[in-house]
Amino acid sequence: MTEFAIEAVGLRKSFKGHEALCGLHLTVPQGCIFGFLGRNGAGKTTTIRILMGLAKADQGSARIFGMAPGDGTSGAALLRRIGFVTEDKELYPYMTVAEIIRFSRPFFPKWRGDLERRYLNVFDLPPNKKISDLSKGMRSKLMLLLAISHGAELLVLDEPTDGLDPVALEEVLRELVALSASDGTTIFFSSHQLAEVEQIADQIAIIDQGRAIVGGALEDLKRRYQRICVVFADGVRGDIRWADGAEHIRREGRMVSILAGRNVEAIMAQARSLPGTIVERYPVTLKELFLDHMRAN
Amino acid sequence: MIFRVNSSSGTPIYLQLMEQVKHAVETGALRAGEQLPTLRKLAVELVINPNTVVRTYRELEHEGIIEIRHGSGAFVSQAATGQLKISRKAQSVMQSAVDRLAAAGLTEDEIRRLMENELAQLRAGEAAGRKE
To answer: How far apart are CA B83 and CA B70, in angstroms?
Structure first.
């Protein structure tokens, strides 16, 4: 038994000479809600496709519940434990909502009729409407219903909230929290909406250009990262070599703003020792953390 | 009890929630023996991670504000009001001491070291007192 729902080590993947993933590491503890953050094209969907066994990594390994995703009987058994929502929300367009549910049910021995009825109701899905006539938000909700109802231990959701209006978004997030609280379901979801990730995730990873650049428990990251603002009464003179841990430094007029991931005390002491400085520190939000790392790359 | 959190503030959500529970106890909105919402209910209501609620309740239990009875939930402890008065007073003493030391130019580590030395002195004093 492994304590990780997902473990990826050194994933590499190229498409036509373009490196989509260049040594991506990822660990998702069981029972957590994991927010997988990154800009469009950062490599989120490629990672998810590898995790689901839909694509093969050029290098590195991926394990889900300790097993390799992909072909073979273990791969098939693994898929029954995972609820998957794809990025394109592609479903058979000629089926109605009720038909796709009836069609999906027999594949999953642990199908939860109670959840199916509950989410038809909560998500307000019209059973007799054809999938081709559903809005993108409705299709997202329908895919979530299918993913949740088959009794999965792990949900892998690629941009699950894409196309949802604010009311529907809150409903979906609420149901994900409920699922995590009552069944201990591990939820791994990708998003570029920082607010929703900050709201429900307890673990995050930020990926950029095919690499995880920040990762861990959200509360720890928030505690560890601090913004140090240094005001120079007589203006900033010359280039200052800041102590280790000063990750992103920006100069704005008489002020220098430093995002520090460690060694905060030493950096503050260094700032205070410079002539004519006033030094302050502030907590960092996820949005700042994200934007600072994006600017730096 | 109505709690609200701002997830995009830099203050961790569990600290925001702890403060709101304490405030509710101080104003009498929550009284000794009264039950707090279950973990699931609070997480779903606020749409926040369940582990955040666990953390909040654990810290509050540690401070003696609430009691967690396994299987039945979290309750405001009988001693909560007293504990709060002590912890608020302690908080203000600490705050002014730390502010003054920081204003004098001491770093966080230096303050922490001073504090530990004082505690060591206190322990030594107590041990000596017992010997006499």
So the answer is: 22
Of A180, A219, A265, the CB nearest to B50: A180
Res A235: pLDDT:
83
Q: Which residues in A lie closer than 8 A to residue B107 (C-beta atoms)?
A: 265, 268-269
Chain segment B16-44, per-residue pLDDT in tens? 999 999 989 988 888 999 999 999 999 99
Tell me how many degrees the CA angle A151-A62-A72 measures, rounded to the nearest 5: 65
Q: Which is it for strands A277-283 and A186-191: parallel, antiparallel or unpaired?
A: unpaired
Residue A60: C-alpha distances to residues A22, A26, A47, B30 (Å): 10, 11, 12, 54
Which value does ipTM take for this structure? Answer: 0.77
Task: Please give the pLDDT value at position B58.
Answer: 94
Measured CA angle at B64 (ends B47, B66), to 5 deg: 40
* Alpha carbon distance A18, A36 (integer Å): 22
**Chain B partners within 8 Å of A222 (Cβ):** 10, 12
| Of the partner residues A174, A202, A284, the one whose CB lies closest to the CB of residue B52 | A202
pLDDT band at A100 (very low <50, low <70, confident <90, very high): very high
Predicted TM-score (pTM) of this structure: 0.83
Please list, in sequence order, all residues whose beta carbon lies within 8 angstroms of the beta carbon of residue A48, skipping any fewer than 6 positions away: A36, A87, A156, A158, A190
Residue entry with tokens 């009264």: B34
Q: What is the Cα gyration radius of chain B?
A: 18
pLDDT of residue A2: 64
CB distance B43–A223 less than 8 Å?
no
